[in-house]
Predict the 3D structure of the following.
Amino acid sequence: MSRLGDLIRTERLRSKMTPKQVARKCGVSESYLLAVEAGTKIIADDQARRILKTIGLREQTEADFSLDDIAATVDLASASPAVAKAVDRPKPQPEYELVATTKTASKKQDDDADKDENVTGSVWLDALTSVLKRVPIMNAVMQPVDYRLMPIQSGKIEGAKPDKVFYFLAPDDSMRGFRIHSGDLALIVPARSPIDGAIMLVEYNSHRFLRKIKKLNDYSVLLQSYDREYEAVEAQISECSFLGRASKLEIWTPFRAIQLVTLSGYARVFIL
């Protein structure tokens, strides 16, 4: 027995009416009404309302006569294939839901794409960070004015930790005897003690400059420039601060070329 058929039968018995009386008042056959009550016949929505109203069910609402209730009066196993197929067919998705779903899916794809792009960008950034370093260019007062990208080899730059190296911008022509002119760049690697024969960045008498070092003894050095306008200065080691050793020079030529010169004499030229 179906829910709707059971409801019709319950209300009919409560009203003390026979199937014949209800059938006559509603204009249906007695056998049809009994089949509906048994759940073996399909009953239309309007007809079900009319029968229930006839037998005295006055407070029933429209929600109580949904299509699910009507369909529940049918034995789908014995119904026609078309009816069974119609009942089993999934409800169509409203257009606005389709649009919303499409937008949601599109937004998810965009978010996923952005996420993938960020991940990819992060991976590339991590990869580049491991092979390239922004090396600062310091002026005479040790303030950064620019930077250069330098390759990292085996975790080091010119044999030193990447965060310990920097470029020094030559402030004048005092080292032109060594082909270092104003505006040229010297790559400085850490060195806190004087190295005989090396060009080093030295702080002396509150000034910072590049000089070639000649050790005179354990206590004094000669700061050489090899230029007539800048005489060599003999200084006590204790009076000097050695900020590092120049391991490579970048010399700007009139043709906008950078000549990378190692202090051992090896040179490469890159035209910009």
Observations:
- The first strand starts at residue 132 and ends at 138.
- The domain at 135-271 is CATH 2.10.109.10 (Umud Fragment, subunit A).
